[in-house]
Write a sequence for this structure.
């Protein structure tokens, strides 16, 4: 009996910390890092999620902007943060897909140092130009660019960003000679396309749609294989003469690697509810995005596939960032 009692006590003592951990979290504010400038798609979606998550968990959820190096600055901060569920990141196809493919050396390992929690949304990228550019279709833009080789600049949110790689794919499929102009985030890049400093940009829909609707940018195409319900009159790049062209923007929450599984699962469940709520669907739809709300395992598979895709492209076009 003493042995049995001792064995039961040992199991109880081993389980109690885990139960206590799950019950205690969250005991203080949670921070979601947006690895971008304010107004960029990761920032916009992070703020929508933060509002809902704070209600669901009964704790303040704060968004911290840490832009730089195409998402590397914010990602490194989170990768090296304590794995306690209080520091998260709104990762995206650039920060947690493309970067693993194009950076020769990162100060972290995307698949080892992060714990995927839930994919929140997917959205097309959108090909926009300054309204003074005399091109109303992708075909016309290609002809215009080819008549001015090396004279037109295209903006991006940084080397290795989704905007950068999406346009490099476009260049590789069309043979146009455009000059890459990297910025520290999509917002300042879009500002210079609006002003005419740069001719064009392929960018996430959320920050671009209001500018298109205001007439400050002209939308030529979306980058998914099907048109966006938000802008059904805008064709896809593929149907505009480049069959097979496709890039998709995704956004999702990740925690530092080794974050306790109970916390990851709790967050994933809450985020899935938020993503599938009618209000969230409506808000994301207004930005051109669609909700997902996935399990950690499904999100991990998305990241792995994206890394493989962009690695193949970076090798084929010879892009590597030191």
């Amino acid at each position: 009996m003493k042995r049995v009692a001792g064995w039961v006590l040992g199991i109880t003592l081993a389980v109690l910390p885990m139960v206590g951990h799950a019950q205690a979290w969250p005991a203080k504010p949670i921070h979601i890092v947006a690895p971008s400038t304010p107004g960029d798609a990761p920032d916009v979606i992070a703020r929508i999620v933060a509002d809902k998550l704070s209600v669901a968990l009964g704790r303040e959820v704060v968004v911290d902007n840490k832009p730089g190096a195409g998402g590397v600055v914010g990602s490194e901060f989170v990768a090296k943060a304590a794995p306690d569920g209080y520091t998260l990141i709104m990762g995206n196809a650039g920060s947690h897909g493309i970067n693993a493919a194009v950076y020769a050396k990162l100060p972290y390992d995307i698949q080892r140092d992060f714990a995927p929690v839930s994919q929140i949304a997917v959205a097309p990228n959108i090909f926009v130009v300054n309204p003074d550019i005399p091109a109303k279709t992708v075909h016309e833009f290609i002809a215009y660019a080819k008549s001015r080789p090396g004279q037109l600049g295209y903006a991006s949110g940084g080397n290795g960003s989704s905007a950068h790689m999406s346009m490099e794919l476009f260049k590789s499929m069309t043979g146009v000679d455009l000059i890459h102009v990297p910025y520290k985030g999509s917002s300042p890049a879009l500002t210079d396309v609006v002003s005419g400093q740069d001719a064009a940009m392929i960018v996430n829909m959320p920050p671009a749609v209001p500018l298109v609707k205001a007439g400050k940018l002209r939308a030529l195409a979306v980058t998914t294989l099907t048109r966006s319900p938000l802008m059904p009159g805008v064709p896809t790049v593929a149907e505009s003469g480049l069959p097979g062209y496709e890039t998709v923007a995704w956004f999702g929450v990740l925690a530092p690697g080794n974050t306790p599984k109970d916390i990851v699962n709790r967050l994933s469940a809450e985020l899935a509810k938020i993503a599938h709520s009618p209000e969230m669907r409506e808000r994301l739809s207004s930005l051109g995005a669609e909700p997902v709300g996935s399990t950690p395992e499904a999100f991990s598979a998305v990241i792995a596939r994206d890394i493989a895709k962009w690695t193949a492209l970076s090798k084929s076009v010879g892009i590597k960032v030191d």
In short: Strands lie at 30-34, 61-65, 87-92, 114-129, 153-156, 179-182, 200-204, 218-222, 248-256, 290-291. Confidence is low (pLDDT under 50) at residues 13-20. The first strand starts at residue 30 and ends at 34.
